[in-house]
Design brief:
Elements lengths: L6 H16 L7 E5 L4 E6 L6 E9 L3 H8 L5 H4 L3 E11 L2 E8 L10 E12 L2 E8 L10 E2 L1 E2 L2 E8 L2 E11 L1 E2 L6 H23 L1
Parallel strand pairs: 6-8
Antiparallel strand pairs: 1-2, 2-3, 3-11, 4-5, 5-6, 6-7, 7-10, 9-12, 10-11
Protein name: STAR4 protein
Pfam family, one: START
GO biological process, one term: cholesterol transport involved in cholesterol storage
Length: 206
Amino acid sequence: MEPLPSPAPLAARLRNTLVRYHGIAGGEWRVARKTKDATVWRKPSEEFSGYLYKAQGVVEDVTNRIVDHIRPGPYRLDWDSLMTSMDILETFEENCCVMRYTTAGQLWNIIAPREFVDFSYTTSYEDGLLTCGISLDYREVRPNFVRGFNHPCGWFCVPLKDCPNHSLLTGYIQTELRGMLPQSAVDTAMSSTLANFYSDLKKALK
């Protein structure tokens, strides 16, 4: 296992990477799924052999409250149907921590439960917030779980200019589930999970 990295340089690199993803031209993305709550696109990841997914939708609430429901903290487990446990392992500052969480099996358990250990960082972005994360090789893997790996991921949440009590929520997710999995199953799970994320979040915020 690696020692914990210094949080400040890691946070800066992570933020810069997410801002770069946020600037990728629309023509590079291909629609993977569209629902009434969100649109999900994808493009080949630069980090691993899978895809970088982009999800976007308007959420009827203020930016701070939305991000409080997404980032590590007491709200996330209450509404995120995929997440089954979450522990904060280390806290560096109020906006910076290392968390371990587990996810439920998916697609009739073709995808078995996964465990992740992520560095998480929340910071300001334009008039809103960015909460982002990346997996670390830290702590032993617990029995009965496969350790997945999140390459740089994050959520940009900014108020709509003409309607500040609504927010545009844009996510970038590239998860390496690991284990012996058919890529088609992974792709189906990722796009549907991201679309469901928006509908579950909206219900939680009502």
